[in-house]
Fold this protein.
Amino acid sequence: MVNQHRYCVIMCGGIGSRFWPYSRTDRPKQFIDFLGTGRSLLQMSYDRITSIVPPQNIVVVTNAMYAPLVKEQLPEVCDHNILLEPARRNTAPCIAWAAHHIAALDPEASMIVTPSDHLITREREFEASILKGFDFVENNDALLTLGIKPSRPETGYGYIQIGREVEPGILKVKTFTEKPNRELAEVFIETGEFFWNSGIFLWKASAIKQALAEHAADINNIFEQGNGIFGTDAETEFINANFPSCMGISIDFAVMEKAANVYVECVDFGWNDLGTWSALYDNSPRNKDGNVTQKCRVLAYNSHNNIFAVNSDKLVVVEGLQDYIIADAGDVLLICPKAEEQRIKLMVNDAKEKFGDTYL
Amino acid sequence: MVNQHRYCVIMCGGIGSRFWPYSRTDRPKQFIDFLGTGRSLLQMSYDRITSIVPPQNIVVVTNAMYAPLVKEQLPEVCDHNILLEPARRNTAPCIAWAAHHIAALDPEASMIVTPSDHLITREREFEASILKGFDFVENNDALLTLGIKPSRPETGYGYIQIGREVEPGILKVKTFTEKPNRELAEVFIETGEFFWNSGIFLWKASAIKQALAEHAADINNIFEQGNGIFGTDAETEFINANFPSCMGISIDFAVMEKAANVYVECVDFGWNDLGTWSALYDNSPRNKDGNVTQKCRVLAYNSHNNIFAVNSDKLVVVEGLQDYIIADAGDVLLICPKAEEQRIKLMVNDAKEKFGDTYL
C-alpha cells in the first residue's frame, strides 16, 4: 500500500521555446503528444507516478494560463491540487510554494519534484528508484537529486560529481557542474564520477523549507508570510499578491549548489530530457530513410534523417532535404538544419521583435 | 473606336498542376494573384484586352467547376459570355466551341484566343501587336499565331520556324517544333529563324471553323450538330450532352501543325508563360538575398534564391536553404529545390495515389 505521506509535485509551467513553433506559448511541449503515444508528456509524467504516491497527493504547479490545458489533460487532478503561478519565476519559487503548501496539509510529508516534459522509458526501474529515494529522505536529513548514469558525453546537460557512498546507490554530492564542452564531457564519462543532473528531486517538505530558509531567505520569507493560509481558500489571493515579488532563480542555483545535506541517487531508467529537437529525433521511431514524423503525412524524396513535426494531418512533400527540422504549427513554418537548432532561440526573438506576440 | 466584330476568348480552365500545391485544383494558378499586383493572372489577362475588343465581346471559357471563381473575379463578364466546359478536353474542343458560339452571334467575327495565365509586361506593345494581327486576319484567309522573339535558349517552350515574310512582321510558318534540348535551342537562337510559340492566336471565326472542318473533323462534326443552338438558351444543354464526346487534343496538334494558311506575327512585348516556378522566380521582385516572397512573412537566415509561396500571412522561418521552392497551401507543404521542379508532377501523382483527391 502506498505511503499516504508521500506527495508528488509535477512542474509544468515552462514554455518550451526550444521546440518553437511546434511547441507554442499557448500549448507548450509538455502538453503535446510528442512521441505519438496518445498521451502528452505531462500525462505520461502523471501516469508513471500514480503507482508511487496516492493520486490525491499529486500536485501540479503551472502558469495560470495553462489551467485549462491541465484540467483538460488531467481531469483526475482536483482543482485544489493545481497550483497556478501568476508569473514565471523559474523553479525555486515554484518549489518553495509547493513545499509550503504540502507542509501545511501534512507536516510529515515527503515529496518528489519532477519536470513534466522528460522521457522515461523504463518505468519499473523508475518506480524502484523513486521508492528507494523516498525511503532515504524519510530516514535522513537529506536533499536528494537523481543522477542519471551517462551513456554518452552529452554537452547539453549539467553534471553531478559524486562523493562518498552513504548507502548502496546513494552518494554525497561533491559538485554540480554546468554544461561542459565536448572534451570535458568525455573526461567526465571516463572518470565514472559524473552523472547527469535530471532535475528530479526528493526531500521531506520540512527539509526543503529549512534549506530555503538558510540559502534562499528572500524567497522563503515571502512564503513564510503565508503561514496559516496555505491549503485554505485564501491561498490563491495570497499567492497572486506575493508570488510575483519572488526573484526568478532555479532550485539548483538557489539551494542545491549551496546546501551541505545534498545527496545523489544514481539511477538508470531510460531518461532523456527531450530538451532539443535532436534529442526528440534520437528518441523517436525512424522510417527506413531515417525520417521521423510527428502526426502529419509525409512524402519524402531523396530526403533523409529529417524530423517532421506538424500539428495536423497536413501533407508535407519534400525533395532533397537532409538532417532538417520541418516544424509547422499552422501560422508558423520552421525549416532549420538539426545542427543549427540552437539558433531557434534567436529566431523566436527576431519573430517577437518584428511581429510582437503574434507567432510566439 | 474599337471594332464591334472583334472578340476575345480567354481560356482559363487549366488546373496549373506544375505549381502545386500553391496552385490547387480548386483554385488554379490563373485565379491567383501570382505577382502580388492585387489582380489575378486572369484579371490581368482581362484588363489588357479591354482596350482592344468591346467588353461585351470578351468570352471566358473555363471548366464548370470554376464558374464561381470567374464570376467573383470578373463580375464585369455577364453569364452568357462565360462558357462552361463540362469536361477537360484540351484546347481544340474549347476553341471549336468558342468559334461556333461567336460565329453564331456574329458571322463576321474575328477573334483573339489567349491563355489566362501568362505574364505580359509591355501592354502598349501587346495592344499594337494584337491590333495589327486583327487587321491581318480580317484581310487574309489566315490562322495567325503570335511568335515571341526569344531572349534565351529556353528549353521549356515550343518554337515556330518562320518562312517568307508576307508583310512586315508577319511571316508564313515553316514548322512548329516541340520543346528542344539545350543544344538545339541554342542553334535555334543563333539562326534567328525561330520564335517561341505563345499559344495566342488570331483568326476569323469562319476561318478557324473551316480549318477545324478540314483537319479536326471528329471534333468539328460534334459542334456542327449544334448549329442553330449556339447563342440560345439550349446551348448549355447541348454542350453538356456533347462536349464530353470530343477527344482531348491541343489546337496546335489538331489544326496549326496541319493547316496550310498558318502565319506567325513576330512580337516582343515582355511575354512569359509563367509555366514553371523558375519562371515565376525570374519574373518576381527579389530581396537582397535573392529570395522571392508571395504574400507570407519570411525570416530567412543563411538562405538565398528561394521562392516562398504561401497563401496566407503565415510566418515562414528558414535557415540554410538555397534555391528552394517553399510552397504552403494550408493542408499541403512542398519543399523542393528549384532545379528539381519537374519532379512535382510525380509528387502530385504520388499524393493522388496515396491519398486520393484530398490534396489535389
In short: Chain B touches chain A at residues 21, 297, 299, 301, 310, 312-321, 326, 328, 330-337, 340, 343, 347, 350-351, 354-355, 358-359 (CB under 8 Å). Residues 64 and 84 of chain B are 5 Å apart (CA to CA). The first helix of chain B runs from residue 41 to 49. The two ends of chain B are 45 Å apart (CA to CA).
